[in-house]
Amino acid sequence: MASKKPHAIMVSFNLQGHIVPFVNLAIKLASKGITVTFAHLEFVHQQISQSQNSTQTDLFAAARASGLDIHYTTISDGFPLDHDRSANIDEWIANYRDRFPENVDELVRYLLQSDPSFNYFLVADTFCAWSEKIAEKYGLVNVSFWTEPALVFSLYYHLELLREKGHVPVNGRRETVDYVPGIRSINTRDFMSYFHDTELEVLHEYIFQAFDVVKTADFVLCNTVEELEAETISALRKKQPFYAIGPLFPPDFAVSNSLMPEASSGEWLNSKPPGSVLYVSFGSLATIDRRVILEIAGGLLVSGVNFVWVVRPGMVESGGGGVLPEGFEDVTRDRGVVVPWCSQKEVLCSRAIGGFLTHCGWNSILESVWCGVPMICYPLFTDQITNRKVVVDDWRVGINLCEGEHINKEEVAEKIEFVLSEKRSEELRKEIEKVRSTLEDAVTVNGSSERNFDGFVQQVRNKICRRCSH
Ligand SMILES: *[C@@H]1O[C@H](CO)[C@@H](O)[C@H](O)[C@H]1NC(C)=O
Ligand SMILES: *[C@@H]1O[C@H](CO)[C@@H](O)[C@H](O)[C@H]1NC(C)=O
Ligand SMILES: *[C@@H]1O[C@H](CO)[C@@H](O)[C@H](O)[C@H]1NC(C)=O
């Protein structure tokens, strides 16, 4: 029994910011000699294929060609492919929570029956609250993968404590919280948006439920670096096996994981002087107030800097017409590029980029630090609010876009000029170099993330063997 090979069953979550590190995790597991079956939601598969103009049925073909034992399949979320999922999010979540597990069950049962020569275990995003049912039913060792910082994990983890003390819902108060194990001090202002909201929707309930579930997980993996969140991680580790294994970045071969077609601005960037270009992106998900877009456009006009701006169709909350002010693209034609989506790490690591105006998604932050690009922060919702604190207050590798309640183009221009001026942003650049080398060290052969990952793989192997020999 003990000689059976471990086989990870991985079912991915539907959001872009979760898909990217989850795919990288699959490759990382396979690179340690673990067999992987990876399932995307069917509609996610379709979206990725379409964005690549590809009829590819196996998104991991290149990974397998490079020698990794990764199998690929898709799984239905229960809706027809052309169903408009964003039109009724509550319906989708309720279905995902209540009915979708049956489809996962079918996949797991099929795998277990079709090849019993493996020891299977389950790897799911922490937001996949269904994992518990499946793991329990089949007695599978289970792993929960957290795509945000350990700080955010810990706050969700201690939701009940925060509620007892009356700090959640935040309800507009600004109070310092210093009693969460492993978190020395945080202002309630910096809590994730879901802790601020007083009215709980299906989404809130779902996420909070996911944190009841994660407490039962055999292992938790987090896309962070131990040295950067040592106290928080060591407090969490007293409760559960918790491994910092980040930053998880893509391998050398191609794996399609983008839900939107990526435009290339490489040639244009190469024609610009080093550090002269501001990269602006608010990520793949959030919508943003048109007023904010106008002030940022105004700030770009006033500052006169070069820029690459990711403007997703549909990123503005309301109103018809284009996202950008009329004539903006004409006026800035010789110094700006507007793209609907792009390969962000590639852009950030171009020598031409001198700053990143970001919504503070965790992947964006890791990529920006990795490429040594200081940030201007404009968080919109969810963990972005808390991540801003990490970037600006803890690591001091970024600044806030606006200090007050309201954003105006003069302040935007001032912040842009500050970050793009190598002299004025010298402190930020010094600090980012420290954090950057911490990230880099973590993923070297003897670095903390690499050692943690190896330790995790060893523990999983041991646990699988113990469980199957009983
Ligand atoms: C996909 O096809 C469309 C329409 O033919 C084209 O505009 C786009 O550039 C193509 N995208 C990729 C990634 O090849
Ligand atoms: C993990 O497995 C244990 C033991 O089977 C089970 O009790 C628990 O509910 C599972 N948790 C998750 C998150 O899958
Ligand atoms: C990693 O650590 C091992 C054991 O301590 C050592 O032999 C090896 O030289 C180290 N490798 C690197 C690249 O530092």
UniProtKB/TrEMBL annotation:
<protein>
    <recommendedName>
        <fullName>Glycosyltransferase</fullName>
        <ecNumber>2.4.1.-</ecNumber>
    </recommendedName>
</protein>
<keyword id="KW-0328">Glycosyltransferase</keyword>
<dbReference type="GO" id="GO:0080043">
    <property type="term" value="F:quercetin 3-O-glucosyltransferase activity"/>
</dbReference>
<dbReference type="Pfam" id="PF00201">
    <property type="entry name" value="UDPGT"/>
</dbReference>
<dbReference type="InterPro" id="IPR035595">
    <property type="entry name" value="UDP_glycos_trans_CS"/>
</dbReference>
<dbReference type="GO" id="GO:0080044">
    <property type="term" value="F:quercetin 7-O-glucosyltransferase activity"/>
</dbReference>
<dbReference type="InterPro" id="IPR002213">
    <property type="entry name" value="UDP_glucos_trans"/>
</dbReference>
<keyword id="KW-0808">Transferase</keyword>
<comment type="similarity">
    <text>Belongs to the UDP-glycosyltransferase family.</text>
</comment>
